[in-house]
Here is the input.
Amino acid sequence: LDTIRTVKIGSVYYEFVEKPCVELSFFEGKQISRRENKLFGAMCANPKLAHASEACCREERLQEVRSADKVPGVTFFYEAERMKYDTAHDRCVDYGKDLCFFEKTRIQDTPNDGFRKGYSWTNLDCSINVKINKEGYIAIVHDAELSSKNEVDSQGIPSHLEENDTQNWFWVQWEGPFPGSSESDTCASFGCKTLASGDCLCKTSLNDTPVFQDLSTTNKTDILSQLFIGAPGIPSNSEPDASNPDFVAHKVHGVLDEHTVLEVNDDKGRTFLLKNVLSTVTLEGWAQLPAIYGVDEISSNSSVVYKSHGSASSGDIVDFLDDDQAFVEWDSISVEADGLYDISFRYSMGTETRTMQLFVNEEEIFLEHAGRPLEQINHIADEPPPESMPLTRCQGDCDSDDECGDGLFCLKMDGNEGYFPGCSGLPSGNGRDYCVDPSDSVLPIFLPTGGFNQDWRHWSTQVFMNAGVNTIRLKVAHMGESAPNIDYLKVEGVRTPTTASFRNPPHFVSHIVNKDNLGEKNVRDAMYETDAVLDHYIFHDNTAPFLCHRIMQRFGLSNPSPRYVKECTKAFRSGKYDVSDEISFGSEEYGSLEATIAAVLLDKEATDEAISQDMSHGSLREPILKVMHLLRSQNYEAVIPVS
Here is the structure.
């Protein structure tokens, strides 16, 4: 188990309360979605944290995508269990499935109450962008796959993480200029997108590097001033190195790197476990900003139907007919320079996995594949006997994905010829359907989404285009059955790094929450964050001298000497004030008011009669009191005019 919520001891139930722990705002994310993707949207989550549950399905299997499994006692062990991404993946693999971009989830053999499901992991990567205003404040924006409408909250990314709606601004420590910081440092100069609000939207990349690569000359002050990320504990596979009296270095496998945890005590009596890592967020722009080409911009087509309902972008969609000559083409794809560009098709598909053909400037694009030797097509029978199930790679005839082994899907063709990824030879008999591995395909593979006009996702790749106007064609491959519906084509330049960066900011309260207040946000973490702020104030280096100075003033000394303040500060921090070898005050803990007051009242500057004869010693009246006393001595009376 990655986490527990409730523990039963005897007949009593106890709530498990997590220790205070921060999260980093930026990470390499995996997408999480709620129980019915098309209705409840998605966001990014840190795969290293237990922030979602499992949803088991194989992405090439239509029926599994339509309804991903949660199995009590097998894939989850208690209600509302949260787990890390790897745990969810491993449990699903042990169950015989995997993680996928599902349409909805179901709890097997039990009531499928919606409130029981919450967020679940998918196998999709997602990224975290950043929104920047002219003052240098940032807001976090999640770039996740939306299954249905381009809306916020109910059917998209929650508004507190959506690029146009988020108002969760906070300050970060910038290294150098940032987009929007001056007339020359504009959004465009960093390759970032300018939003309607005038703010900049940039992509990000994350870089974790070790701070110390040699500890021979490092001291306690260096560690406390340069390390900012805490560790929840000492790594179990680490070896302690206590050669330096200032600290202990817990090195994983004896190596000093970003996984090393340094244990150090400060002068306030606190023990810190700090990771030897600096997490830096670097802004990235686009070589060319994203451009959307809708189906209304298609220049030519064959054997397609335009439909005006069900689009994810509120426009028309293209439905391919069952014709191996069916295609759509955009001939006005404009790019600024020769180079690589990311292109993606937003599509929906309510049938099994399909292959398509992609052409750029009339040249067919072939994709990288697994590189395994071709397997000869093996037609076992039109209806293979049960003992031959499940069918292996290039075996047939199959009627559904369920008849194929793990990682395979049933590719169906309507003609006598067709492209079967990883297979050689021609179909025989009446069989035209064979089990294939999608990783063998050199043609674009479009995976099922669940429905033809309600569930949408992107298929993307990187292609070379020439400066100026280009053409992109998407064509049905051979005589495949139902092809995907197309919503739009997106073209964008590849990521370009910038010089702007900032330290990865931590936070206590989780961002994983939607409009129904479902997610990981809770009052406990808000209290932890409040306590952390108060601790920061209490343990700040200026707190002790500030309090000492104010207390001394209240006890009649307007201008205490630096020595006097220093002695009081020492007593506040150590929690002890020694009058003599036999007499002392305080609890010997940081912030002891007993030791502090003793230092104020018993110091020689407060008790020496000779000092009290000094005209500059003692308490000066506040200016307002001086004026009031002068007026009173002159029998001043205030006269309030009648009108």
Remarks:
- Residues 229 and 275 are 6 Å apart (CA to CA).
